[in-house]
Amino acid sequence: MIWYFVGILAFVLGAIYTLSFRYLTRERWQIFAAVPLKRIEGTKWKGVNITYYGILTATGFVLGLCVFIIMAGSDPAGPAGMLVALLLLLLLFIPSAKIMAIIVEGKKHTFTVGGASFVMIIASPLAAAGVNSLAGFTVNTAAFLASLLTAYAFGESFGRLACISFGCCYGRPVGSMPSFSKKIFSRMNFVFHGETKKISYHDHLNGVEVVPVQGITAVMYGITGIICLVLYFTGYTVESFFIALCITQLWRFFSEFLRADYRGNGKISAYQLMSLMTIPYFIVYYFFAGFETAYTSDISNGIYFLWNPLIIILLQIMWAGALLYTGRSSVTDSEIKFSVVKENI
Question: Do the beta carbons of residue 320 and residue 54 sit within 8 Å?
Fold first, then answer.
């Protein structure tokens, strides 16, 4: 069953990524819709833009949740404990995103997904232990961590498509790369178009060949997620967790050297240091605290658990909430004019 599942998943993601890499850099694929809010004069309205960034970010978030639910639903002890532990981490995510932005960047009116993800990853074994001791559930720490990092890999993988659409987290110009890298990226690159994309108004790289760092991240994290799914459902739970942890965090560190957007002061950013810190943290945790005995899960149980009307409705609500939170553009606006098509009267 696992091979059919990952085969279909890999095919679907591969098709979506192929089309996304071709089209999302174009100007057409930044704004999904403009919703009229306030009349300016006559039939002209001021509108708010709903972006593909929000649609893709919300979809990546729900994709990660679906993967986690499938993995948690296959737990022989039941999914309740792992879901409660995840809920605790999600409640921690929102305030930590703002607090970490204040601590690291000194900004009060923004948030950082990277900083919040760091807090969630560091706190994940504590959440599992807390649920075990206080709530009376049984949570296999290794299974919980493997599920969390695998879901993170898939969610972050799909979320990079949002960055392509918005033109953020972009790579360095190919012309500025060393000669060896220049040969590679002269054939494999992104060229963004559109004055409202961040790469255009922030660094004036509209129409310039840049390193496709978002696409590389999407593919690398997607492959990592698939490998970790196979390992998890064939009994290699601890290996699944450490592979997901090391690849996602090490690539987070090295990929920032390929980026041209602002990463903070200094050659190495605070978020790069955070990503490196997670690996020795869990190595120490593994040797001193240890993990419970691994078990072999049946993915069909997880899929059956996901295929529940209540779960599906909750996921739809969370998708809509994520879209409203991330999809309303605050850096672009629009003017909408309505008119009657006289030929059709």
Answer: no
Kindly list the distances between the CA atom of residue 329 and the CA atoms of 49, 166, 262, 332, in Å, as whole numbers in the listed order.
5, 10, 20, 6
Give the model confidence (pLDDT) of 297-317 as tens digits: 889 999 999 999 999 999 999
pLDDT confidence of residue 81: 86
For the record, the structure tokens of 47 come out as 């509108």
What is the torsional sign of CA 68, 71, 74, 80?
negative
Contacts of 128 (CB under 8 A, 6+ apart): 81, 82, 85, 139, 141, 144, 145
Q: Which residue in 185, 71, 177, 85 sits closest to 139, CA to CA?
A: 85
**Residues in CB range of 121: below 8 A, 6 or more apart:** 148, 149, 152, 245, 278
Residue-wise pLDDT for 195-254, tens only, equals: 999 999 989 999 999 999 999 999 999 999 999 999 999 989 999 999 999 999 999 999
3-state secondary structure of 31: strand
Helices (H), 198-256: 198-203, 213-232, 237-255
* C-alpha torsion angle, residues 216, 218, 220, 223 (rounded to 10): -150
Task: Please give the model's pTM, rounded to 2 decimal places.
Answer: 0.91
CA of residue 324 relative to chain centroid, distance: 17
